[in-house]
Amino acid sequence: MTADDYLTELAQWLEIPPFALAAGDKTPRLAGALARLTQHHRRHCPAYARLLDIFGDDATAAAGLADIPFLPVRLFKEYELASVAPDQVFKTMTSSGTSGQAVSRIFLDRATAAGQSKVLARLMAELIGRQRLPMLIVDAPGVLKDRQRFSARGAAILGFSLFGRDLTYALDDDLQPDLPAIEAFLARHAGAPILVFGFTFLIWQHLYLGLRAKGRRLALDNALLLHGGGWKKLQEQAVGNAEFKAGLKAQTGIERVVNYYGMVEQTGSIYLECPAGHLHASLFSDVLIRSPADFSVLPAGQSGLIETLSVLPFSYPGHALLTEDLGVLLGEDDCPCGWRGKYFTVTGRAPSAELRGCSDVRANHE
Amino acid sequence: MSKRPLPADLPLVYHAGAGIADIDCRPLPPYAPPTLAFLADLSRRLLADSACRTFPDIAAFGYWCRPANLVRLAAAAAGPQRRLGRGLALHIAPANVPVNFAFSLAFGMLAGNANIVRVPAAPKEQTLILCAALRELFAEPVHARLAAMNRVVGYPRDDAITAALSACCDARVLWGGDRTIAQLRQLPMPPRCVEIAFADRYSLCLLDAASVAASDAAALAKLAGDFYNDAYLLDQNACSSPHLVLWLGDEATAARAQARFWPALAEVVRDKYPLSAVQAVDKLSDLCRIALELPAAVASTRHGNAIYRIRLAALPPDIERVRGRHGLFLEYVSPDTNCLDAIVDEKTQTLTCYGVDREQLAQTIVDRGLRGIDRIVPVGRALDIGPVWDGYDVVGALSRIVATQ
């Protein structure tokens, strides 16, 4: 498969509405594309080929989605895995990590970067149509300047800002609500549809709580709020999706709040929350919930590790990744919202286990 | 007497015994009657406690210090020389094996010393249960001497406190990873003080392929259960848990033995071992790391997520750097034990084995002058700690000889 083949195939997929195909049409199509990606990466990424050799997976025999060999997503934090020559690398993306943590390094060639943008645009069109909306970014303008933090957060802002115009930052560099900027923005776009974008935690901790502390309410009734980045910090404060939505409605009037689930290792093919409150796989992606006991695929209703599949990773072997998130498949093709495909919830990060044994390292001594 | 008095004002939490300034540091001879009586009572108390059913490690310690075993250990240690405890022993216990502090204390007691045992600031439940039993026995008048000599203390990782205690002790016993040991070693001790450091070690398993292939169903089930205890009870994190399985024999016999042994083990693991989601990801990640970093690895076999096996085409000399967790093993087939020469170094601690003459193998190690392997024990005994451990005669090292000529 060449980069041209990849883009040609993707162009055909982009013709199809992303939440329209039922399993009978989608699954064989997706399985075929992923199997071709497996072959492509086996040929072009020696480390990936070595992993498959040791796994003993016979990739040519791969029949269904569950047979596509998957890698632990954390491998991208430890190894530089690429399926293109170094001179083809157009952009290197890194995950956000707190200081001292390893970050993922994802190598993009032009084809993969273009594929990511096209798929993201196709998914966004389902939410906001094809026009660019005035966009309020719930972050500080410094996020793009700060090299330390310019990572997944900055990249996501840059990626999503393609769907906005009059980009305005809602927080100042102390992460307080920048009320003059917000009010000027609202005055410019009174009555017009607006896109608000940001990270779940920042929106809650700094926009919502900041407004509440100041006793201010914003008139964002016409806005759609798109947010992602994980619930871990909010779970610590016992804030779930329902509290999040209710709090934001009270303080900003926002009715349409859409969560997304995605990761830097599979940028573009994100999972969007539907009006029924479920995360959905699109035509370009899928999820499998795997049992920790044997990695067998679990049926709907059972909690397990989330594996994410994406047709986008061409320049690096990241088309089938085992995350460290736990989730539950809720159903397939029958969500009350009308979107086809699998829908699921993410219940959180798998809790780390207590270390046993005497061969400890100092960090674990206490 | 030039020895500095123990500082009275250290911010210590006393889990058993109170105050260190008045600790009685007059030593006893090894295996002295008051010590044996104390440990025997401790054993009875623990084995009668319902906590034993919840915590097999407490049961194992209680069983270890039963009178019959102590008598056996005393007889094995008896020699022509007069011995006496060295005085005060300071023990820095490991965080991740809760009952090891109790073994360390018992070794110090058996050697005849007064003991201060430091346990982590956030002690495990087993530690608290054991300390409660110690406190009850310390309160009995019959154990007044042992009560006066022994303290279990907790304090946060604080080099200043450990330094203050180190300056007063006659023996220091350190447990921990290599970095912990290196850090603690920076803290000076009095000139006559002896030190035993239980640092990071590496262990492996030697299975005679023909014996495994020929074992009947009962023997195979026992072997699998024993191997499970060695490897899985502490997630392969114990120094004595195996990471490498050497199959002694030819390829064909080894293949038959493997086809019997691993499925039997997988059954035990599926029955007993709760693998968490994170541990499953850890295990897959370890498999990937080994695939990418160990050229000698040629294939893997996964029994669900119960067992990951990685077959080696050769034994690299630094194989001890490759460790499994939660049931990941390297395996290698060898016609004889000469392959040990290349991989055994001072890090190598325990060789568990099945179908192998242990005495003959121990003699081979001596004859070949290998730098490691301190213990050769049957599969199932890897975690059985005792006063001869890590190649040390611990009770001997913690006591001194009063010689005559």
Question: What features would you describe in this structure?
Answer:
The complex is a heterodimer of chains A (366) and B (405). With 366 residues, chain A is of the alpha/beta class. Helix content of chain A is 32%, strand content 22%. Chain A has two domains: 3-117 and 274-348, Rossmann fold (3-Layer(aba) Sandwich), CATH 3.40.50; 131-261, 3-Layer(aba) Sandwich (Rossmann fold), CATH 3.40.50. Chain A has helices at residues 3-14, 23-44, 46-55, 75-78, 110-128, 152-160, 179-188, 200-214, 232-236, 241-252, and strands at residues 71-72, 91-94, 105-108, 133-138, 164-169, 194-199, 223-228, 256-261, 271-273, 279-280, 285-290, 303-310, 320-332, 342-349. The longest helix of chain A is centred in the N-terminal third of the chain and has 22 residues, at 23-44. Mean pLDDT of chain A is 89; it is low at 359-366. With 405 residues, chain B is of the alpha/beta class. Chain B has two domains: 13-200 and 390-402, Aldehyde Dehydrogenase, Chain A, domain 1 (3-Layer(aba) Sandwich), CATH 3.40.605; 202-378, Aldehyde Dehydrogenase, Chain A, domain 2. Chain B has helices at residues 33-48, 51-54, 56-64, 67-77, 100-111, 125-138, 144-149, 159-166, 178-185, 209-214, 217-232, 251-272, 277-293, 340-343, 358-368, 394-397, and strands at 13-16, 82-85, 88-92, 114-119, 150-154, 171-175, 194-198, 202-208, 242-248, 297-303, 307-312, 328-334, 348-354, 375-378, 388-389, 392-393, 399-402. In chain B, helix 1 (33-48) crosses helix 6 and helix 11 (217-232) crosses helix 12. The longest helix of chain B has 22 residues, at 251-272. In chain B, 49% of the residues are buried. Chains A and B meet through helix 3, strand 1 and strand 13 of A and helix 9, helix 13 and strand 10 of B.
